[in-house]
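Progress against Task 2.4 (sequence-to-structure conversion) is shown through the following example record, which the project officer requested during the mid-term review.
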Amino acid sequence: MNVKKKITISDFGDKTFKIRVVEPENEKRASFTHYLHNHKNGISQFFSKDAIEYVSDILKEKYPNEIIDYKLAEEALQYLIFDFKNTVPFPAPKKEKFKFIDLFAGIGGFRLAFQNLGGKCVFTSEWDKFSKQTYEANFGEIPFGDITKPKTKSYIPDGFDVLCAGFPCQSFSIAGKRGGFEDTRGTLFFDVAEIIKNKQPKAFFLENVKGLRNHDKGKTLQTILNTLREDLNYFVPEPQIINAKDYGVPQNRERIFIVGFRKDLGVEEFTYPKPKNKEVTLEDILEQEEVSVKYYLSTTYVETLRKHKERHANKGNGFGFQIIPNDGIANSVVCGGMGRERNLLLDDRLTNFKPITKITGKVNREGIRKMTPREWARLQGFPEEFKIVVSDAQAYKQFGNSVAVPAIQATAKKIIENIEKCLMN
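Structure tokens generated for the chain above:
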């Protein structure tokens, strides 16, 4: 008969407390990694309870014949911190200049940009499980889940400086003539607005598709601006369409940026960053070595694309596949097959034409191929060290949904400069 005995942290000897997170998604896991990231800055109080319970659950499963009390789990949690930061590919800066939160985080494009400027991310949320895998692999942190749930919102700490969110575009049911905070209920923007209202960050940075400007005949954007300016009382300059190609990546990607500042800071004007005078082309981001045959289109696929394009051309439409020259600029990378089909390449370096995936027909001999996920990562400004830990299909989706990091960073720099300037006066 096994009898449980009470032990202390020293009884584990040289056993490590490295914990592989493999069980189903839950908020305790997110709290655990958020605690490890924030154990020194006072924000750990928002995550400590669940983090300790998480470690306790793991230890109880690992050592079923030993008594694991709260104090031991707490000591084990502290022990884990020592080894933690050495394993994170993109750690927070050693000396943080400001704090921010990352909503609708995706794979961390906002986080990379703000960390590069000295920012410390103190909370992140993302519902997609595959994006969470990529986020954890690169930042050592598991995002919390559905931000529309009160439970998830309860983990958001106080005292952060900037709220970042690339929220989806949705129509609003505008009840009154003006449209405002109450009219946004039931949309994801409402959750962003609610967090801004409750937490009062110094600034926010929102990103969306270019079409938001004309969405629902302009009513959607007007409701957003009325909410931010009048209901939440923030200074919000006119939003601006920013193109990624103007900030060092060869991709024609236009997105609308909306920034705002709490009025007590005294920010009265804001100038979006000027385009960089840097010539970039597809050649700058292409693979240097021969890529796998799996990225080359089959003869049947090529013929199908050509017929599809011809049908639309006969109707006077410009739809269909597109081959981008090496000295050209890529079209916007987006989710779905069209994002890849409008960014095909000619690459004659293939030497092995034997298919390694199921295709109809043979591998084409014209050198027509898709870009690789790594090339898409470069188009979005992600560094070479950024880990791609999911399938190609998921990687295309993730980079297509992400933000162009250089454009975000250039704008983020302007936001931080304005905050610092006002705090000095």
